Amino acid sequence: PLYADDLQFANNDQNTNFYFDHSYHFECEEKNIVGVCDYGIKVTAAVQKNNIYGVQFHPEKSQTSGLKLFRGFLNNI
Prior knowledge:
By secondary structure, the chain is α+β, with helices and mostly antiparallel strands. The chain has a single domain, classed as Class I glutamine amidotransferase (GATase) domain (Rossmann fold, 3-Layer(aba) Sandwich). The chain has one helix at residues 63-75; strands at residues 2-4, 15-16, 33-38, 42-49, 52-55. A hairpin with a 3-residue loop joins strand 3 and strand 4 (42-49).
């Protein structure tokens, strides 16, 4: 599940499942992390800096959760 507090993720439940297709993950400054998932360690799944967002998962393959995420982005631009 993705654990996120950010406005863009507000249309999804706090613990939302998204589709991950690989085990790669990125590291960044803690202040830019807006979503994490737990694979035995805390893995950064979503980042935000100013008006730029990035996600490590595939919202386009995440069915209802992905559609809600896209809706959240579109409603806030």
